[in-house]
């Protein structure tokens, strides 16, 4: 046996081992013969190659291929293998379903009636109601997710512009803080003097407050020494006096009493004014002609007019 022949045999054996080993790792039973069938779903959701095909919970095959059918409204043609000892009938239904963990598989609803199917036949299909609802809601959710992602992208683009503004603001702030720092360094001595003077002022205020404490203490003692009853009596007397004064002023305004009549009566004022005027004339006459009043007889038949 030549060397080349041995190399060829080894290569063929390696290829066979690789093929069956790869299928074994995918879950294929290389010792079990199987037949393939087809079914069509409008949407397969998360169904993938090698997903299980089962009957009454027992795995009997797997998904081997999927193909999109554009001419049938983008329906999906699914090819799956089933063990040869399993017989499928015309009434068998391939149902697309999903478990609690979200794993999608095909369940064969077998009914032993009608004619048996042959290899390559197409089974009737249906989708589990729960999975159908999920598939119906998945499309609008995906659309909303796309809209959200687009909005996030636009928002991030805006943030890029805002980021530049923030960087500029931070740079300006750094410049301002540096200027403030330089200003503080340049006026360090003056600021120290101001702080020292402020401390002295505070100490002086503290001393003045200490001086005021005795005065405030005496004021408190005086306030404590005031008898509330006496203060109340004084306030009552003031109220009584105020009321009496108000009544008196009211009577004066109404012209009651002598003083009220004097204030309100115009004729009495005129009489008093005339009397005062005559008395003034009499005093002037007496001052100019005292003999008229001091003579024993005086003037009897004429009125004293100062002639």
Keywords:
seven-stranded mixed β-barrel, 59% helix, elongated
Structure description:
This protein is an alpha/beta fold. It is built from 7 helices and 7 strands; from the N terminus they run H-E-E-E-E-E-E-E-H-H-H-H-H-H. A 7-stranded mixed barrel has the order 1-4-3-2-6-5-7. The protein is elongated. The termini are far apart.
Q: What is the number of strand segments?
A: 7
Structural class of the secondary structure composition?
alpha/beta
Residue windows where pLDDT falls under 50 for at least 5 positions:
303-307
Oligomer: single chain
Shape: elongated
Note the beta-strand portion. 15-25%
SSE string, helices as H and strands as E? HEEEEEEEHHHHHH
**N- to C-terminal distance:** 195 Å
Radius of gyration: 63 Å
What share of the residues lie within helices? Answer: 55-70%
Number of helical elements: 7
Round the mean pLDDT to the nearest integer and report it: 77
Question: Biggest β-sheet, characterized?
Answer: 7 strands, mixed, barrel
Walk across the major sheet and give the strand order.
Answer: 1-4-3-2-6-5-7
């Amino acid at each position: 046996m030549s060397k080349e022949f041995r190399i060829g045999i080894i290569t063929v054996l390696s290829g066979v081992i690789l093929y069956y080993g790869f299928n074994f790792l995918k879950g294929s039973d290389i010792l079990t013969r199987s037949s393939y069938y087809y079914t069509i779903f409008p949407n397969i959701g998360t169904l993938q190659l090698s997903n299980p095909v089962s009957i009454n919970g027992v795995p009997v095959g797997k998904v081997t291929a999927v193909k999109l059918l554009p001419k049938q409204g983008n329906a999906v043609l699914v090819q799956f293998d089933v063990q040869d000892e399993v017989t499928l009938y015309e009434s068998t239904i391939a149902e697309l379903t999903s478990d609690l963990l979200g794993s999608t598989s095909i369940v064969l609803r077998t009914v032993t009636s009608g004619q048996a199917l042959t290899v390559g036949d197409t089974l009737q299909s249906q989708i589990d109601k729960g999975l159908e609802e999920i598939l119906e809601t998945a499309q609008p959710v995906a659309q909303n997710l796309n809209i959200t992602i687009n909005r996030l992208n636009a928002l991030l683009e805006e943030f890029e512009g805002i980021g530049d503004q923030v960087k500029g603001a931070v740079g300006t702030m750094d410049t301002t803080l540096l200027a403030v720092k330089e200003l503080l360094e340049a006026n360090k001595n003056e600021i120290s003097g101001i702080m020292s003077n402020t401390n002295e002022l505070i100490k002086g205020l503290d001393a003045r407050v200490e001086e005021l404490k005795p005065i405030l203490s005496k004021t408190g003692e005086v306030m404590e020494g005031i008898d509330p009853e006496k203060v109340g009596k004084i306030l009552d007397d003031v109220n009584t006096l105020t009321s009496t004064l108000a009544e008196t002023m009211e009577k004066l305004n109404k012209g009651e009493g002598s003083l009220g009549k004097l204030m309100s009566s115009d004729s009495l004022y005129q009489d008093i004014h005339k009397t005062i005027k005559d008395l003034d004339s009499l005093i002037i006459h007496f001052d100019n002609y005292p003999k008229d009043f001091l003579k024993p007889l005086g003037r009897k038949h004429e009125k004293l007019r100062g002639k």
